[in-house]
């Protein structure tokens, strides 16, 4: 459907650049308005997005369709890479709590060359990820949520939600920025610094129990780390 909306005109490099600039502008405005929830000043770069999507290439058996959740999809920087990995029977839920971003994502599913390819397999949910409901099941969860801005209780609630909806053997990949703790130790009020320390403890607890790999992505602004976790097989 959406693919027919593209003329060679609309996919020209300058058009793509204009769209990327528009999304970066939207991101900066939302970050200034609500930094705690947005958690970044710019959308993720392609190296970070690719690292987060690592487990979209692991299928058991190799032709098994994947059910994918992206939490905190923003303006679609990671969603595009997810779309590029998707096969015809895969499905994806893009969840985004900021209505401005969710609206833009819905528009991109119609107009963006990469995202429109999976428009019929994708759903945009404009809500908190924990509001999605526990009757869903996913093979891969990619989390873009800014855990370092959340309280320990919020981090725990979200990780427990992921654990509920992630299938046995499924993968969760999430990211954070390098050096936020030492920077906050110097520039942030003590209470904010302590909040991040406590939130980190919760995350570390989960990573120590279920983590299978950690990757550093230096080619991102700011540099980031990615944790990959695996849901234990039950029984
Ligand atoms: C660091 S940005 C990442 C955006 C995008 N994935 C990227 O990598 O460029 C975090 C995003 O998570 C969204 N967000 C924050 N808390 C959320 C929640 N509880 N549920 C869903 N989305 C949330 C924010 O609005 C923001 O768009």
Summarize, please:
The protein is an alpha/beta fold and 235 residues long. It contains 9 helices and 7 strands; from the N terminus they run H-H-H-E-H-E-H-H-E-E-H-E-H-H-E-E. It has a single domain, classed as Rossmann fold (3-Layer(aba) Sandwich), CATH 3.40.50.150.
Can you offer a commentary on this structure?
By secondary structure, the protein is α/β, with parallel strands linked by helices. It has one domain (2-230): 3-Layer(aba) Sandwich (Rossmann fold). 43% of the residues lie in helices and 20% in strands. The protein has nine helices and seven strands, in the order αααβαβααββαβααββ. It has helices spanning 13-33, 35-38, 46-52, 77-85, 99-111, 113-116, 152-165, 180-187, 190-210; strands spanning 67-71, 91-95, 122-125, 138-143, 166-177, 211-217, 224-230. It has a seven-stranded mixed β-sheet with strand order 3-2-1-4-5-7-6. β4 (138-143), α7 (152-165) and β5 (166-177) form a beta-alpha-beta unit. α3 (46-52) packs across α4 (77-85) and α7 (152-165) packs parallel to α9. The structure holds S-adenosylmethionine. S-adenosylmethionine binds at residues 37-40, 43-44, 71-74, 77-78, 95-98, 101, 128-129, 144-146. Residues 1-10 have a biased composition (Polar residues). Residues 11-20 have a biased composition (Basic and acidic residues). One of its GO terms (molecular function) is methyltransferase activity. InterPro entries: Methyltransf_12, SAM-dependent_MTases_sf. This is Phospholipid N-methyltransferase.
């Amino acid at each position: 459907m959406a693919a027919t909306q593209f003329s060679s005109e609309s996919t020209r490099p300058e058009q793509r650049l204009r769209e990327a600039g528009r999304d970066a502008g939207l991101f900066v405005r939302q970050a200034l308005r609500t930094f705690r929830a947005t958690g970044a000043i710019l959308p993720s770069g392609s190296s970070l997005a690719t690292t987060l999507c690592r487990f979209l290439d692991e299928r058991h058996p190799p032709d098994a369709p994947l059910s994918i959740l992206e939490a905190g999809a923003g303006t679609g920087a990671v969603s595009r890479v997810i779309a590029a990995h998707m096969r015809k029977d895969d499905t994806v839920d893009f969840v985004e709590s900021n209505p401005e971003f969710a609206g833009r994502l819905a528009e991109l599913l119609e107009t963006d060359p990469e995202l429109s390819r999976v428009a019929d397999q994708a759903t945009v949910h404009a809500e908190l990820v924990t509001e999605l409901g526990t009757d869903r099941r996913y093979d891969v969860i990619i989390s873009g949520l800014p855990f370092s801005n959340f309280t320990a209780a919020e981090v725990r609630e979200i990780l427990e939600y992921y654990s509920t909806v992630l299938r046995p053997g499924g993968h969760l990949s999430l990211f954070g920025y390098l050096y936020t703790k030492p920077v906050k130790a110097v520039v942030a009020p003590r209470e904010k610094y302590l909040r991040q320390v406590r939130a980190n403890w919760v995350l570390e607890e989960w990573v120590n129990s279920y983590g299978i790999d950690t990757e550093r992505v230096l080619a991102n602004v700011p540099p980031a780390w990615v944790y990959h976790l695996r849901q234990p097989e039950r029984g």
